[in-house]
Amino acid sequence: MKIGDNNLDTDVYIIAEAGGCHTGDPDTVYQLVEAAAATGANAVKFQSYIAERLVHPDAIPLPIIGKTYRTQQDWFRRLELDRSVYEKIIELCKNLGIDFLTTPFDPETLDYFAPHMDAIKVASGDLTYCQLIDAAVATGKPVILSTGLASIEEIKVAAQRIPESQLILLHCVSVYPTPAELVNLTAIKTLQKEFPDTPIGFSDHSIGAEACIAAVALGARVIEKHFTLDSTQRPGDHILSLEPDQMKSMVSQIRAVNKMAGDGNCQAGDAELQMREQMQRGVYYASDLAAGHVLKPEDFMIVRPRSDLQPVDVESLIGKSLQGPVTVAAAVSFKDAE
Asked: Which long-range contacts (CB under 8 A, 24 or more apart) does 270-277 make?
């Protein structure tokens, strides 16, 4: 599968999730885009919502928001961005060579942004929002579905609505921040088993970059990591976000780990075959021996480099007589004895 020009079979697609770390300030938004592009990430992603369409008027703030705001609507309304700001973001992304993504939280918002994105991201909280998933599928673009908060049964139900050719699943734990003991990276292997033909990735809410790097070693093909200009800011996602230098380091390490993954074949490649001749052991005579000598274990030295005979071949030569004389350090051959 591809996201834009990025082939997930060979490359890891890395999303710098700016989310709401702009705190509603357009200048901060543009700085986040520029900083994300400099890290080498494939995409910078925001979150687009209209507070009244997202949460009930009386919904209390989430723990990560704290008590500064009376309701969730108050918090999310603060983070809404004008469409004119998004127009500048999209143009800036094009100029800087980084993909623009945003998570839409309702079908109308999705329809507005879909033409400007190479994939549609559906948040964990909307995994059961079938109307939004159907709208994402209707775009014909890859649908990146986070799986936080959901059971495997709920994930399967949601996945059934998305054609296999469009589906990308991200393991996710919706705890902010996620402590190490709850990250549960081996769930990536579970999703790979349940959805063998689907790219599996990881949306991370833990502190630091270690979980993302480890996820790639487990086969994650998409990584989403929160991104901020200042991780000391509060409230919000800053605490679990990487700053630009940290994101750049993570991207570099992920690229390296992806190269290290290889093709999974337990077989010596061309580069190793050259070393094998020098590093594996061969079979040589330990001393000069006369014709007719009956071979014993102590007549052989098993040392580097590799020779025509393997150490296991010595077992078939014990007790046989030499056809002719041999010299010390000469390579042993089956033809020497009968």
From this structure: 276/306, 277/305, 277/306
Indicate the helix (H) or strand (E) that contains 38. helix 26-39
> The whole model's pTM is what?
0.88
- The predicted-structure confidence for 203-232, as pLDDT tens digits, reads as follows 999 999 999 999 999 999 999 999 999 888
Cβ pair 170, 224 in contact under 8 A: yes
Count the Cβ atoms, other than its own, within 10 Å of residue 335.
8
Cα–Cα distance for residue pair 254/250, rounded to 1 Å: 6
SS (H, E, C) 119-181: CEEECHHHCCCHHHHHHHHHCCCCEEEECCCCCHHHHHHHHHCCCCCCEEEEEECCCCCCCHH
d(CA 313, CA 281): 12
DSSP assignment letter at 116: G
Domains of the chain by start residue, with CATH? 8-261 (3.20.20.70), 270-336 (3.90.1210.10)
Q: Which two tokens stand for residue 266?
A: 């337990």
